[in-house]
Design goal:
heterodimer; A: alpha/beta; 5-stranded parallel β-sheet; 13 helices; 41% helix; B: alpha/beta; Urease, subunit C, domain 1; TIM Barrel; 2 domains; 8-stranded mixed β-sheet; 8-stranded parallel β-sheet; 18 strands; 23% strand
Amino acid sequence: MIRDSSSSAPSLGKDLLGLEPLSADQIRLVLDTAEPFKEVSERAIKKVPTLRGKTIVNLFYEASTRTRIAFEFAEKRLSADTVNIAAAGSSVEKGENLVDTARNLEAMRIDMVVIRHPASGAAAFLADRIPSNVINAGDGWHEHPTQGLLDLLTIRDKLGRIEGVRVCICGDILHSRVARSNIWGLLKLGAEVAVCGPRSLLPRGIEELGVHVFKHPEEAIEWADVLNVLRLQLERMQAGYIPSLDEYYRVYGITQKRLERAPRDVLILHPGPMNRGVEIDSMVADGPHSAILQQVTNGIAIRMAVLYLLSGGTPERANVAQAEDVPAGVRR
Amino acid sequence: MRPVLVKGGRVIDPSRQLDQAADVLIQDGRIAAVESNVTAPEGAETIDASGMVVAPGLVDVHVHLREPGKEAAETVATGARAAAAGGFTSVCAMPNTDPITDNQAAIGFIVKQASAANGARVFPYGAISIGQRGEQLAEFAKLIEAGAIAFSDDGHPVLSSHLMRTALEYAQAFGIPVADHCEEPSLAKGGAMHDGVVSTRLGLKGIPAAAEEIMVARDVILSELTGGHVHLCHISTKGSVDIIRRGKENGVNVTAEVTPHHLTLTHDKCEGYNTNAKMNPPLREEADVVALREALKDGTLDMIATDHAPHHYEAKERDFDDAPFGIVGLETALGLGVKELVNGGVLSLPELMRRMSTEPAKAFHLDAGTLEPGKPADLVIFDPGATWTVEPTEFHSKSRNTPYAGHVLAGRVERTIVGGRTVFQRDS
């Protein structure tokens, strides 16, 4: 899935489709490149000219607030020209539309496409058919690589390392692209990974990916340094995977009471949007060990890094470019 | 009709345990003699078959020819020609056309198109139920009169056990099989590939092996209850094989088929969201492939059938979830059988011919699958040593949806003869 990756210096290649195809070096490259970009968002004038003249299309076939806005901010802060296409609701003939969309985008000479699509593999499908850089902003249940990267960055920020850290992903793993990207990214960087949730929401063969499986959150809490709590969607109950949200909260909800039994501080992540009182208790979400808002902040830096690297940038120049882009006087 | 003498080939006729150098004489469209050193009658066309295998034409009891309804993907004529190019002389066309072959007129249409086609013989299936809706039994007797050779609601499983029981009972008066696509729909719903570690990685909804096995078990039990002949389509799992094997040990009247793709590929082929590896039942795991091969060898699985399922290019040019199930199979089946099963040490060549010709003809009571004198002269002549590369643009089928593009196969059809007439001959 990674193209043009034959050169000796680490690069991301043409597209970012998932974390599974990336090497540990490539993942570290993105995390390291994100560091200087964090600072851009802290400035009074939050803009650098890095992607001036580049055109980027944000192609969202599924509703998204957080991810779409984070990409848009990242693009704007890098001075790219952007167009948003919200194609939600066109799911009936989405396959055909995607082929036609790809051809049209190609004809318009777009530099980059950020795509969110309900079908697993949609980003790869597009990447195979157009010369532009394609960034997967979530495809079906498959991967959500920028979310995985921002979770990695947040863990590294908070704990100082990723290698050897024990991370348990809690909830609906079956339908979660966030879970898959987290599993690949964490494993490649040497973390220990576990999943915890009702067996009806764990995909078959998940153990074969190299993760532990906990049946009860109590076991996970005793084991983990980090809990990444996934959103439980109401549709799962209607589709018969669990009996009720209330029962889910009772058995699997990450609550203050459960966390009090932890032998150490447990860092809490959540990709959002949260269902307070379903998968996570407000006390926990808003508590001292929650890094949920830092994830959102890091989401912009990670996306700036990905956009920058795919457009051909190198991490060394990221530092220099930003330092010199804006006169010192206007910095906050 | 000019007599034809096929000289100097290795004649394999599993119906008579024959595997020897011999000549085959064809007169008036029928086999006249299979002997050493037959003298050509006056005016006979002589075909040099030295180095070739001469065998009963292949029989495929499971193809989708898309006509009427989806003629852009295939027609009876193009399907019959693709079959002939693959060495098949008889194919049985499934009823899920539009309109469905649940009435005499629709069956009659297939028979008429088949008679005009210049290729393999085409025999229509009738639908088990009106509209394949699984509610009301179709008129079996009338459909048989019009030309139906078996019944199936293929594409849809027969969900109602009561209807399946009734069909198995009712069909007994006519002595023809009732075929079922075994799939428990509530388990399979929304699935795009095998439920396993590859579906987990790709984030695709899985179809568990149990979806097939539950219905296989039910059908074996219903066959035992009724004594009716149930034919199980495209078996894909080890668990199904175990159930069928037990059924056969208990004398149940069950036959079963397996496709070339389930014998040769696993769910790994779906990597990269390859829609040409999307079929139903889905490609399974290595242990399943091993079990299917063993079962074909020991006869638990009676025959190979392709489930030839042509789709127009555009239909597969989409994301995996939205792409339709199915691949074409008629023109790669023999090459896969020789390469993977014969050269792979699973079956002998006579055993392969038995599973691709004699057994399916016997189970479906077709006047085929043999070179016995007096029988219709349907035969295939192929070079068992030749290797060739699958190039979909060279297919005679209208469709190109195959996962085998670029694969090197062994055993190449040189000529296919139906009723004494050559319907396919390789350009040299």
